[in-house]
Amino acid sequence: MPATALNEALQRVTHAYRSAMASAIREAEVPLPVTHVRVLKAVSHLPDCTAQRIAQRLRRDKAQITRVLNELLTSGLISKRDNPADRRSQLLEPSAAGMAMMQRIKQLEQQTLARMTREMNADEVALFIRLAGRMTDNLDAPASDH
């Protein structure tokens, strides 16, 4: 497969998934922009979650993440507490309202993924997950001199 075909396939699947999720979020009247959803997901899933860890995980500027976190704090979807391991940072966790919002978002994700994989069998889905993981690991690893 030529590199341009792989490039286009990756762009198409990424764009199609993001677009379908954004539509599902809008249609379900979830009152959060997609970036806020991604940050709330990170807060919900990362152990010992800090703004710095979210910025690294989402590959975003820490200042942008901090702005989103402040909005999530103001809306009552997350809470923060002192980090006993590092006094310069605070640990973040979803509030009860944030956990309820995450349940809604998970349902939307499951519906979108079911739609996306409706004509695929379990082996095909597992193969895609393995290949996507390998590709991501290759990009995350230091570049070698080939």
Report the mean per-residue pLDDT as an integer. 92
Helix-strand sequence: HHHHEEHH
CATH superfamily of the domain at 19-106: Winged helix-like DNA-binding domain superfamily/Winged helix DNA-binding domain
Using only CA atoms, what is the Rg? 18 Å
CATH topology of the domain at 19-106: Arc Repressor Mutant, subunit A
Termini Cα gap? 20 Å
By CATH reckoning, the class of the domain at 19-106 would read Mainly Alpha
Quickly count the helices: 6
Which strand order spans the largest sheet, edge to edge or round the barrel? Answer: 1-2
Q: What is the CATH architecture annotation of the domain at 19-106?
A: Orthogonal Bundle
List the helices and strands and how they pair.
Blueprint: H1 3-27, H2 34-45, H3 51-58, H4 62-74, E1 78-82, E2 90-94, H5 96-116, H6 122-140
Antiparallel strand pairs: 1-2
Helix pairs in contact: 1-5, 2-4, 2-5, 3-4
List keywords for this structure.
Arc Repressor Mutant, subunit A; two-stranded antiparallel ribbon; 6 helices; 2 strands; transcription regulation; WH_DNA-bd_sf
Report what the structure shows:
This protein has 146 residues and is mainly alpha-helical. The protein has a domain at 19-106: Winged helix-like DNA-binding domain superfamily/Winged helix DNA-binding domain (Arc Repressor Mutant, subunit A, Orthogonal Bundle). The chain contains six helices and two strands. It has a two-stranded antiparallel ribbon with strand order 1-2. The relative contact order is 0.11. The model has no long low-confidence stretch (mean pLDDT 92). This is MarR family transcriptional regulator.
